[in-house]
Amino acid sequence: MTAVMGRPDTALPADVDVAVIGGGIMGLGLAYHLALLSGTGAKGKPPLSVAVIERSYLVSGASGRNGGGVRMQWGDAGNVRLMMDSIELCKDLAQQLGINLWFRQGGYLFLARSEAGEVRLERNVHLHAEVGAPTRLLTAAEAQTIVPQLDVAEVRLATFNPEDGVVFPWAFVWGYAAKAVERGVLLRTHTSVTRVEPLARGYALHLSTGEVVRAARVVNATGAWSGALNRQLGIDLPNRPHRHEILSSEPLKPFLDPLVVDLSSGLYFSQSTRGELVTGISLPDAPDGSDESLTLHSSLRFLTHLSRTLTRLMPITAAMKVLRQWVGPYDVSPDGDAIVGPSPGHPDFIQVCGFTGHGFMMAPAVGRLLARWLLDGEAHPMLARWSPGRFAAGGMARREDMIIG
Amino acid sequence: MTARTFVCRCEDVTLGEVERAIAVGLADVEEIKRYTGLGTGPCQGKECLSALGRLLVARGLVPAAALRPFTARPPVEPVTFGALAAGATGPVAPEDPSR
């Protein structure tokens, strides 16, 4: 018997302990872990009542639009450790969620074509060795033994981590949704929160259906759409939407093991377990500037720019066909670090935003650590670093330079 | 038709799988597409979408007048990376020397 997913007619009570706005991977992963930890009535506390409210269908936002890459190759020890946790969780998550996540550890192969890139990869390998991530340096020729179709003429250095991999994002979201619902989370879809009203304790959420739900604590898990909700409460955070385009090819027999990243161009490509090549690239802003509009239109400029870069690095792809292209919004934080925790001036309005294009891969670890903090106040080093209060306090520090796309 | 009849021949999605999506509470063509993979193959839903729409209307899940196709994804038909690369204009993209 398959558990019921979210429905547009899920009954919501007048009061809940935690209301999560946004049924993406962050909101659902958090709800799943809250239900998992509190459902047993641990430490004598009664189980929490948790509602997740999604304005559209599940996987409608960035969680259903990303490339599914999962890697521990980061430039900063905190991110490497976090992603080691996330990948560890991914290993038996399919079993726990009872759904095929199409998780495949084919590794990530990073290519440097510049001296600056070379320096970053050398630094990463030393850092990863200290933290315990099995990343190794490769020559161009060694990189070619992993992906024989690469043209490595311009490649100066590469790194490979066999633990990195890819997942199929849709299944992941359905898995969290089903298990959260099975454990008592109320999941309402096709319903938006039109107004957030602060109360003496907690908030009243006014819904598009005319209903009002009061919540002791509210979690803003709406990613690139989070600004509008925050502004209603006068919460001023600097994360902004950024359109990111991506495409997939016709499905082919398995031929490509790792996800490949070219640092110089920001090109990345992998073969999904369904057989498609999934690929994106850093696209320079259009002549009229960066598009923060949250419109999800596709562009020919992306297709041609990506195709030229891809066919130079991987000439065999010239004969492969593009099947479909689409867009998802990154929720970009100015220092590249996520924005997670109590909002300035609103300690019971909790952010889990600003993941800058890498939220999906971090979600398994984030859901667990945030649930532990919400339930038991358990600290985590990343929570101190991700504090939404850091911008006003001047505590912003750029630590990470391995943000791709 | 049986539960094993293919509704989407590109992605091998059967009627039974669509029925299961409906059974877990999904009734929107966009969400059923993302739950089953229906319509994400080479024909991009040109064949299966009408069958799904007809089923949703017949079950009373979506009023016929409210039925919408899922978002069309470019390109209209599959195009090679080689042909698209030839369409790139201007000099080869300036690459970021700091990366």
Written account of the structure:
The complex is a heterodimer of chains A (405) and B (99). By secondary structure, chain A is an alpha/beta fold. Chain A has ten helices and 18 strands. Chain A has two domains: 15-64 and 170-239 and 335-390, 3-Layer(bba) Sandwich (FAD/NAD(P)-binding domain), CATH 3.50.50.60; 104-163 and 241-328, D-Amino Acid Oxidase, Chain A, domain 2 (2-Layer Sandwich). Chain A has helices at 25-38, 77-91, 93-97, 115-131, 140-146, 169-182, 226-232, 300-313, 359-376, 381-385, and strands at 15-21, 50-53, 69-70, 108-112, 136-138, 157-161, 165-166, 186-188, 193-198, 203-207, 212-220, 240-249, 259-262, 267-271, 277-280, 321-332, 339-343, 346-353. In chain A, the strands form three sheets. In chain A, strands 1, 2, 8, 9, 10, 11, 17 and 18 form an eight-stranded mixed beta sheet that branches. An eight-stranded mixed beta sheet of chain A has the order 5-6-4-13-14-15-12-16. A two-stranded antiparallel ribbon of chain A has the order 3-7. In chain A, α1 runs parallel beside α6. The longest helix of chain A has 18 residues, at 359-376. Chain A is globular, with a radius of gyration of 21 Å. The mean pLDDT of chain A is 94. Chain B has four helices and three strands, in the order ββαααβα. Chain B has helices at residues 15-23, 29-36, 48-58, 81-86, and strands at residues 6-8, 13-14, 79-80. The longest helix of chain B has 11 residues, at 48-58. Chains A and B meet through α4, α6, α8 and β16 of A and α2, β3 and α4 of B. β16 of chain A pairs antiparallel with β3 of chain B, so a sheet runs across the interface. Chain B: InterPro entries: BFD-like_2Fe2S-bd_dom_sf, Metab_Enz_Cyan_OpOx_G3PDH, SoxA_A3. Chain B: This is (2Fe-2S)-binding protein. Chain B: Keywords: Oxidoreductase. Chain B: Residues 3-87 form the SoxA A3 domain.
